[in-house]
Amino acid sequence: MLDAEPEAIPKPEPAPRGYLYYRHALIVRITHWINAIALAILLMSGLQIFNAHPSLSWGKSSYSNRAPIFETGAATTADGRTIGTTRIFNYTFDTTGVLGLSRDGGRQVAKGFPSWITIPSFQWLAMARRWHFFFAWLLVINGCVYLTFSFCSRHVARDLLPTRLDWRSIGRSILDHVRFRHPGGAAAARYNVLQKLTYLAVIFVLLPLMVLTGWAMSPRLDSMPSGWVDLIGGRQAARTLHFVVAWTLVLFVLIHVFEVLISGLWNNLRSMITGRYEIAPEPSSREPM
Amino acid sequence: MADNDSRRRLRRNLLTAMGGVLLGGCDALSRSEWFPKILRAGEVLSRRVQHAVTPRKSMAQEFTERDLSPTFRSNGTANPEDAAYQAFAQDRFSGWQLQVDGLVEQPMGFSLQQLRAMRSRVQITRHDCVEGWSAIGKWKGVPLADVLSLVRPTSAARFVVFHCADPMDLAGTKYYESIDMEDAYHPQTILAYELNDSTLPIGNGAPLRVRIERQLGYKMAKYIMRLQLVDSFAAIGRGRGGYWEDQGYEWYAGI
Q: Mutate which of B124, B133, B138, B238 to disrupt the A interface (most A C-beta within 10 Å)?
């Protein structure tokens, strides 16, 4: 037997460690949280404003020979009970307790949205408008700061615009999402293609649409230039769109928070507070491309 | 199992409590003296910016007969519970007169016939209520600018105050409103006596209501009895410039 050097005892490899990656710039983090607060208050004060006329129509005015397309109300049944109703197109639903009729201060009150989702919680249109317009301005100013920063720092071009590779991986990204799988390793440092497209839609379509349809309800702004409101279907159509896009944003927030929860709550939260995002040492659920 | 249940209950109670604190906090802020004043900055900004980006004489959209609402909704007071008003209504407002006074060189009274004999303007416009609904109606009336040119406001006049016939509460507080001279001289600001080619109905403000087309419905006072030109509305009502303004709504209603 040849003398052989004793086989080197393999040293235990250092435990794989991730590293912290600086993911979100300070301005992105600040504008993100201001946006979150403003949107929550805008939704809740907006629903209080909606309650003053819990009905949505399409067209130039509310009274145009066409029935409203969405309406909440209270009705009395054949056996004398009061119920809350919601009508969507030609379908009427019993929504007692939530829409049309809900508890407020221990008794049932006929109102569109319930008190737990409106600001103020009780009927007070003038105050809801004050909240709404203050936070609308905050949203717009905050949005301008974000956009200026994002274009100047190339945040939009670098992080949000899908690359050619992204477009090719779109099928896979959809599959990953429906299986609740998320890339680990270096791939986790970048937004995935669905994430990019969603953020782009929120930033450049949904939020601008909220502002535009909000303007469309202002009689003064409707005069400049006179008639522009008809381009989005008329003034009442603008109010309906304002409502629909608002709930589309709520849907976005629900999915956004869900994804944050399942892809590492603490890591995501830390990255939006301190900016640092931990990259796991190995791809946890799929190999890098 | 029981442990899970109680944990779930605890979590739910915690969430409910947190929500309650947040909502209760918003209600407390709304009721406070100081916070609504901060919120008001948004309304002030809206007025300033809207005036900066829209010309003084920008015109509200005018529609065609096809766009008319089948009936023009009567909102607020439908029939003023006021003896003097009802007496005027009894004889179809033939004894009614519009008083115009205050900071003017020539205080005057106008009968309905006199107003109808003046130059008129017809406009089909949309009425936007602060509640969120809107209706399109065809209005005919005399431009407020023409009435003002007869009474000649002094250079001190800054606002036109509309004093109305309708009592709004048990104490008998009458509806009132006010606009600045920019809106008073706007070509679409008319004192309307006809709606949809008929005499203005009582439900919509007979015998005379004002149209201020670039603001919300509550500015467009119905049942007008008197116009008063003033340099300040601080001494009228509770001093905010209108009945609804005194209840917390904004004086500027362009949004």
A: B133
